[in-house]
Amino acid sequence: MQEDFHYYATYAAAYLAGFSHEECCEICYSAQYVDNCTATLLSKINGPIEAATTQLNLELMDTRTDIIGIQEITKIWSSFHFLPGDIFATKKWAGKRYLNKYRLICHPNGQLLADSVNLAKDKSLQAIGIAMHVLADTWAHMYFCGTPSLVINNTNYYFYELLPDGDNYREREVKFRHKTSEPDDIEKGLYTNTIYQGSETSVMNLGHGRAGHFPDYSFARYKYMPAWDNYNEVIKDNPSDYMNAFCQMIHAMKYLGGSIGTFKLNHYDREAVEKYSDRINQILTKRQLNASADWKAFGEELSCKDIPDYDMNKYESEYLSAKNSEKNSTFLGRFIKAAISHKHMVSSSISDSGNPLTGIPSAKKLFGL
To answer: Where are the alpha helices (DSSP H) in 91-124?
Structure first.
């Protein structure tokens, strides 16, 4: 997903969940900041590097792809952007090395999602924002995984966009290219992706890089045949999935805000959006590279307040000028604390399941305690 959903749509969902305008602004800022909090940024503000929630392309290019490097990549991307749906999944005839990657495929409504939401309960608004970023991405990034893997994440010539045509859809082959100097061309079906690399562990094969930004567009409907599913045809309907994500965020934030007592997987608060569903569907299905203006207008109509534009440098001076004893109480200090806690929870759960791609199991698991 992009800023349009992580920032503006998250604001709208938080408001519908009962949070105040000011609280919504903190939640949605934190949700978007997950896509900006890199090791490079943390070094600039003298923050702890272990709080990194994403990686710049240049950082990835410099990252080793031995087991240590892969573990560092996987801790970040599986924790914050490609939350695994079932870390104990089984697959017939699968070897251990393949199974470890197969178990990291992102799906919504997995146990780790419930753990992520519950971890944010009674914590900061920043923790809520992080959880909402993770939740939303389970819908956008479905079927890809947060570790470099050609066999899991690659795409091939069989990749078709499903374009609305009356009451049905017509197919158009998606043409991928590596031309970062030009924006994606929606009308011609041209989308920039990463360069093909035959190495299983190349960073070019991380997440949905081989499909470019196409899975991040809310209007996208497509089908392809991933190797992990034995080249069976998989259909992805983003407008429907993004609506599920929006309604699930409302349900989760009602729980986190205290208006309901339990967060339930596979539960979507459609009642909260009933009178806005046509408007939301119009935004989700509109063919555009960025829906920020539409989501912003919708959020402002809900709250009758101005939503400030996102500024990734907004809270840096507060953090830099704070005394060491006061940094944890700043906006970024609360974000950093929540990010480290979330990353530790996810990566520990993966390693404790016997999967080495995020590191060794905890001492408690190793000694059977």
So the answer is: 96-102, 111-120
